[in-house]
Specification:
This protein has 267 residues and is an alpha/beta fold. It folds into two domains: 186 residues, P-loop containing nucleotide triphosphate hydrolases (Rossmann fold); 66 residues, no CATH class. 37% of the residues lie in helices and 24% in strands. The chain has ten helices and ten strands. A six-stranded mixed sheet has the order 6-7-8-3-9-10, with helices on both faces. Strand 7, helix 7 and strand 8 form a beta-alpha-beta unit. The longest helix has 18 residues. It is globular. The structure holds adenosine-5'-diphosphate and magnesium ion.
């Protein structure tokens, strides 16, 4: 492992994905990206461009067709222990027959962790996401926004080094979304985790990110990486009217527009 690699918590090296074998459809081509410890990186791009494909590869759930992915310096061949994923269809990842506490405890069970420590972690995660009071409920008794909090709490209780999130706030109302964005920022700061988040919402990407990665083209490649110089303390009103925010936002939008696949490529 060389020094350049050591400084990355996660690294994509020329990652390519083709579905359906060699004669199939090439979705991603030669995506390279290094993510440093404690960074928040958002990946944006058109719907269907390959964002979920990329994050599934990073989570070790899917093997890239070409290239390799490293987490903490090691090439991954299976879901790395240091990593947690909050997936796009979070509702389906909660077990309907388990109460909220047991859903959050689930990833801790396989860790030979004393029950008392599991309880402490679950309780802490419930407080962190503002879910105290619904411990004994079942997932289907909660609103979409609350179910999403459960999925986030489960990932946090696990205390991953790297948190992967695929459109985590897409299915909640605007107010809840803003709350969950701020919750993510404060937890990230408190726990020092590295966050890689996929979203198609440009405002959300710029608001949350240290860097925004724009995927574009067909097959998709990294079109641009925009550093967002907004510092650590962000708030929904002040930050979103900051000229630096607006500048980064404009750049991301124009980059996405320029990289729009030709209509013929989509048929
Ligand atoms: N398992 C799969 N098999 C074949 N094609 C797939 C599979 N998963 C995704 N695709 C295709 O790959 C492209 C990218 O999908 P996806 O990664 O879900 O994009 P995004 O998350 O950006 O919307 C789409 O055209 C989709 O239809
Ligand atoms: Mg997706």
């Amino acid at each position: 492992m060389d020094d350049a690699t050591k400084s990355y918590t996660a690294e994509l090296r020329n990652v390519g994905v083709t579905y359906g074998g060699q004669t199939g459809r090439e979705v991603l081509r030669s995506v390279s990206l290094g993510i440093k410890a404690k960074e928040i990186v958002c990946i944006v791009g058109h719907s269907g461009i390959g964002k979920s494909t990329l994050i599934r590869c990073m989570a070790g759930l899917q093997s890239p067709t070409t290239g390799e992915i490293l987490v903490s310096g090691d090439v991954i061949t299976e879901p790395p222990a240091a990593l947690a994923l909050v997936s796009q269809d979070y509702g389906r990842t909660l077990m309907p027959w388990l109460r909220i506490t047991e859903n959050i405890r689930l990833p801790l069970r396989g860790q030979r962790m004393p029950r008392a420590e599991q309880d402490a972690r679950v309780a802490e995660a419930l407080i962190a996401v503002g879910l105290v009071g619904v411990e004994r409920s079942y997932p289907w008794q909660l609103s979409g926004g609350m179910q999403q909090r459960v999925a986030i709490a489960r990932a946090l209780a696990y205390r991953p080094q790297v948190l992967l999130m695929d459109e985590p706030f897409a299915s909640v109302d605007a107010q809840t979304r803003a709350e969950l964005e701020d919750l993510l920022l404060s937890l990230q700061r408190e726990l020092g985790i590295t966050v890689i988040l996929v979203t198609h919402d440009v405002d959300e990407a710029v608001y949350l990110s240290d860097r925004v990665v724009v995927l574009g083209g067909w097959p998709a490649e990294v079109r641009d990486i925009i550093s967002v110089q907004l510092g650590g303390n962000r708030d929904q009103i002040g930050t979103k009217s900051d000229p630096l925010f607006l500048e980064s936002r404009a750049r991301v939008i124009s980059e996405i527009q320029m990289s729009k696949p030709a209509a013929s490529a989509l048929t």
